[in-house]
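Fold it.
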Amino acid sequence: MLNELQDTDVLWLRNPFPGLTLNETIDLQISVDKFNGNQWSQTNPINTGFYMIKSNNKTIALFDEWYGQRNNSTGKKEQDVLVDLMQKSAFERLRLRVRFLDTIYFSGFCQDSRDANIVSTVHANCCRSIRAKVTDLVTVIHDWKRFKDPSRNKTIEYRWSNHLACQRSWIS
């Protein structure tokens, strides 16, 4: 059984499942803030905004440990606790096979997809406030409509708008 989980600040532009693998040997597929080019590298900065897990004894043990520690980690978000577990070799100890998702398909405000033709999701990560997230997600929707406009000049490289509200949310 596979389960897909996501934050509420993830916008689906198209079906993300073709970008996920149904390979039975992969236990967890998880989004990242910035993709380093290697889908198996644990140096990718994980982001729990979007992930798909295969329900098995290994992933159940991970969630038991993750949520057990999360409840005892004052001041840490669940993502921080998972990062700690990964850095303490929990993935290896549990023999988890983890695939880190390329931001070209599963993008976010930390690292935009380089290709609007294939991006599936946009996560309002690297943003400090709900108001800024909503503002910039609305901008993404406007960008998407502009990209999908049949009268758009397709000979010019498409660019996403800057995530100005999120950038400014770190200043104020």
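The helical segments are 57-70, 78-87, 90-93, 130-148, 164-169.
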